[in-house]
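My current task is to audit a protein record that another person submitted. Alongside the sequence sits a line of tokens, each denoting a local backbone shape. Where you disagree with what is written, explain briefly why. This is what I was given:
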Amino acid sequence: MYKIIILAMMSIALNATIFSLDTGEIKAHTEIFGDGNIDPKTTLIDSQLMLESGMESLRGTISFSTISFKSENNDRDENMHESMNIKLHKSVSFYISSLKKLENSYEISGYLVLNGVKKEIKSVATIVKTTDTLTLNGTFSIKMSDFAIEPPTLLFLSVRDQVDVVYNLNYKDK
């Protein structure tokens, strides 16, 4: 609630545009060596972005409840949620701190907070803005171990440390 009020006041003061998430999906992918894939996703995302002038001024937060991150295998989800310490860390958040124009896309820099650990990451995304909408489609990869998450071992099978993330987020002007 306070975030909305602060962003609204900043919008008035800076003549910025506030975009609220309309629809979206965040998907992750990793593998269990010798067994298959783990592909959790969520559509229960909370996000607001602020755009002051050019696209490089885009700032904001994207977050979701850790428990909403699910695959099609409940047993694996329980292990994943336990590894992510969901009792202590109930959400995952990304804070956009800067954008840099690339040839056909943008490099988004920011801070990912996962399992209580804050790390700077970079993502490559396509961003499309119309008069009253904004769409972000991008990818990035992280290592679980960088966020104090030990890749689980299931029986004698190990989970790959690298997690590839894909996001598709559609915003509307408030």
